[in-house]
């Protein structure tokens, strides 16, 4: 009986460090195709981000598919904001938004400016406060316009909120689930 021929397995091949490897993101943010039974004026609960657990009022859907919401800022500190509809819980509470004019707010309203990117003559080495005088005046006028828009929308919303008893306190309270809360029994 002849001896078995022994095979030698060559180890795995690894790329060298200097080879470019394209990064492919494995998971994408959920992007619902259509609006899930959310109507303007409906109160939503934010599930993620800086304002997690805050209740906000839905104003309209933007062309990008995101939702335009606001606190109002004077009640709970949430400014005009774009939110993906996958990260909200719609509630049965509604606010009258007939007097609110959110037509001037669109996706361009939220675009970053040169001043926010800190680009000037020195480029990367520029410090946050180093803006040219033209950039400073442009930034001041842009921020003033945003403040006016926020104030006009908030004033109209606050007037509508005051008409309903305890709605101001409801919007100001944060949503959370305690130890004894049974999430499957919650009704929104």
From TrEMBL:
Q: Does the keyword Nucleotidyltransferase apply?
A: no
Ranges for the region named Disordered are 121-146
- One GO CC annotation, please? cytosolic large ribosomal subunit
- Which keywords appear in this protein's UniProt record, sorted alphabetically? Ribonucleoprotein, Ribosomal protein
**Molecular function GO terms recorded:** RNA binding; structural constituent of ribosome
Q: One GO biological process from the UniProt record?
A: cytoplasmic translation
InterPro entries reported for this sequence: 60S_ribosomal_eL6, Ribosomal_eL6_KOW
**UniProt entry tagged with the keyword Heme:** no
Pfam families referenced in this protein's UniProt entry, alphabetically = Ribosomal_L6e
Top-rank taxon of the source lineage equals Eukaryota
Per UniProt, the ranges with Basic and acidic residues bias are 127-146
What's the family?
Belongs to the eukaryotic ribosomal protein eL6 family.
User: PANTHER family annotated for this entry?
Assistant: 60S RIBOSOMAL PROTEIN L6 (PTHR10715), LARGE RIBOSOMAL SUBUNIT PROTEIN EL6 (PTHR10715:SF0)
Q: What is this protein called?
A: 60S ribosomal protein L6
Q: Which organism is it from?
A: Paramecium pentaurelia
């Amino acid at each position: 009986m002849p001896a078995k021929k022994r095979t030698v397995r060559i180890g795995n091949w690894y790329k060298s460090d200097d080879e470019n490897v394209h990064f492919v993101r494995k998971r994408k943010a959920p992007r619902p195709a259509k609006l899930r039974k959310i109507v303007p004026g409906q109160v939503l609960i934010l599930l993620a981000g800086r304002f997690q657990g805050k209740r906000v009022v839905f104003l309209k859907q933007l062309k990008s598919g995101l939702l335009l919401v606001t606190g109002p800022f004077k009640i709970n500190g949430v400014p005009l904001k774009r939110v993906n509809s996958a990260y909200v819980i719609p509630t049965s509470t509604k606010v009258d938004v007939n007097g609110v004019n959110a037509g001037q707010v669109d996706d361009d309203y939220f675009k970053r400016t040169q001043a926010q990117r800190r680009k000037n003559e020195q480029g990367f080495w520029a410090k946050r406060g180093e803006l040219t005088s033209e950039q400073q005046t442009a930034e001041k006028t842009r921020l003033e316009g945003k403040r006016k828009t926020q104030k006009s929308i908030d004033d109209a919303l606050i007037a509508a909120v005051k008409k309903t008893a305890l709605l101001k306190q409801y919007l100001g309270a944060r949503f959370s689930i305690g130890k004894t809360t049974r999430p499957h029994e919650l009704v929104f």
